[in-house]
Protein 1
Amino acid sequence: MIRILGMKFSDLETWLVDELHQKPFRAKQLFTWLHHRRATSFDEMTDLSLKFRSILKSSSVITHPEQTDSIASEDGTVKFLLSLPSGPAETVLIPEPPRFTVCLSTQYGCRMGCKFCMTGQAGFHGNMTTDEIVSQLYTVAANSENRVSNVVLMGMGEPMDNWDAVRNALEIISDDRGICIGQRKITVSTVGIPGGIRKLVDMGKQYGLAVSLHSAVQETREMLVPSAKAISLSQLKRDMLEYTGTTGRRVTLEYCLIEGANDSLKEAAALADYSKDIPCKINLLVYNAVPDLEWRQPSEQTTQKFIDYLYPRCQAVTLRRSRGGEVAGACGQLGASILKK
Ligand code: SF4
């Protein structure tokens, strides 16, 4: 059976015409039902003939995750625990009016193995398909009173490690015949893998890029992010410059401050030096302690010293208040459902 929610418009049109022998105009009708009106069954598509609906039913399915739980944090962040065809997923809604951001997962677990991340410690359990990525967004959108305005691919998994499915999902969710999230409102977050950022650049689109740097010292970075052994900081910088040069957009450098690991002034100096010739903004995030992992949050004083060092030296620095810490929906805290498998 075709997982129809995972077909971008051009694929849907080809399939309808070549395989189901339908007229091309059917593609827009169907795409609108699936991605704009977000029908969860073919029976809802009342302006399609019964015969056509019956053909669709016998050849395809609409993925509709079962919501197994949702946990709301005091700051309004909601973590959704979803049951997808291939496993459990965790998706987070972050309300920061007027922005309502959904953080999507792209893999079951992750093979990057970041030492401070619960998902990384859960190991890799498989890639998500395009429909599984897209349907997370639709489930959260259906449960949100406010229109979802932004999407970040920053949940479980490394998006560049599941590129084909992620690329299709990007095209579907930014298609103006569907849910129509603007390209500039969608951010792909990566730890940086060889050739990964180039694939985003090659799309020739305006999607945002966030790089989880966590240290500008190669040795520290490899200690925190074992997959960084495969890519040097200088190569990563070249990749980022290719992105900024091609898109005209700044890249966001994500830096999670962890006590005793990357919070020293030596690390701050390395970060200031590394980032000075990259059009970027630096997002500092104070680590959320994860049960069973040894890493801790730096003190207020250490955090402030780090920021005070960066402010006069860097183009733009923000300290991002972590959202959803109490529901384990914050950065590095997803994956509990995988661990419990
Ligand atoms: S921080 Fe991101 S890339 Fe690293 S293990 Fe966790 S999910 Fe994977």
Protein 2
Amino acid sequence: MTPTITAFESSPDRGRGLARDMRVRWAFEEVGQRYDVRLVSFAQMKQPAHLAVHPFGQIPTYEEGGLALFESGAIVLHIAERHPGLLPEDPDARSRAIGWMFAAVNTVEPPIVERSMAGVLERDEPWYEARLPMLDERIRARLGQLSDRLGDSDWLDGAFSAADIMMVTVLRRLDGSGLLEAHPSLPAYIARGEARPAYQRAFADQLAVFARAQAAG
Ligand SMILES: N[C@@H](CCC(=O)N[C@@H](CS)C(=O)NCC(=O)O)C(=O)O
């Protein structure tokens, strides 16, 4: 059965591939699994039909037969566990890769999301300018630590894995912030991910959704 995921009908990032369906699309492309996409509006995401699949009214979701999943990390892990190629065979290496997936969403992503949400929701507040350096500093600290660990390696822990899908897509959310450039290994790491044919197919597919939405007005 072909899995179906959900994605924004009209992505607020205007096709930059920053929404979290991108990491799921990329994982599907890496393993060569076909998938369908159901596009949802912001209003539809808050309706009972979508809330039955995603309790927080967000995208992405994953449905296949009787299985319904939410949380992009859980979905990518599910794909990686059912197809070869995205997690190491060796049990210890596999556990480390899964650990890096958690690190991406639980340690690196939160300060990045907080900064971008502040930019959207607090930009006109009197405290915004004073708070921004504190938010930036929290991100800088994480980027420094990540860059130290990555060193000269191509990927987080040996061969490319689902962990790199998660980390690259998390770091891409900093595009345009000016925060990545202090650690040249990180833009290079992102570029290695973006150069993968599977990434490019996933990116083109999500961009086509945005282009169609624009054309439809
Ligand atoms: N932790 C969740 C976050 C999901 C999330 O924040 N999705 C965003 C799009 S990238 C969304 O649906 N935003 C709309 C909303 O929250 O109303 C995951 O990784 O799947």
